[in-house]
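Possible regression after last week's pipeline update?

I re-ran a chain I had predicted before the update to compare outputs. Posting the input and the new output here so someone can diff against the archived version. Not blocking, just want to make sure nothing changed silently.
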Amino acid sequence: MNLGDFEKKIGYTFKNKDLLQTALTHSSYANEVKEKRCENNERLEFLGDAVLGIIAAEYLYFHNSHVPEGELTRLRAMMVCEKSLHEFAVQIDLGQYMRLGHGEENTGGRQRPSILADAFEAVVAAVYIDGGLEAARKHVTFFADRFFSSHIKSSIKDYKTALQEIVQKNHSERLEYVLAAEKGPDHDKEFVVEVHLNSNIIGQGSGGSKKEAEQMAAKEALSLMGQ
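New output (post-update):
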């Protein structure tokens, strides 16, 4: 196992190589090593889960100032779930650098989502211990940038479309987005938009652009409709 190659993949060089080796050690391997004490990655996984959660929350808070709390919670949960962590691990070929017991090795452990997701969390913790929060933040942000850019775009795009699909079932209904307010200086505008159904206000939203405010208004309207 070439730790140097893995360090290049993640863009971080460890001062304490033992930390990285522990992060990549599955319990099945540690249990098979009888001649010396060998620590597995479970404790690091525990810490990594917490570090990953705070960095993901921080990223969402500062990069999406107009996204409501409920949506932030949903997006964070999406990023730190096993499916997403497994995908991140695959992106850096984490499986090929792990130390596995013979049983796990022979039954596809290097590709198993649960093992890879746990190891990804352990690596986050190892980076955090070795280099501090800033190093861990840099490591996680590499994945967060691409993950959230695609998921936020797709979730935002759906609100107006979903509302329109509901309303157009009745051809007599008319949907209209109305700019209700415009606040702040030119470089930091906040727009408030109301969505009207036959002149009745059914939702209101705010955002850094009119389009974003319209999406948030549509989201509120959908929520009030129980969607």
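Follow-up from reviewer: compared with the archived run. The chain has a mean pLDDT of 89. Marking as no regression found.
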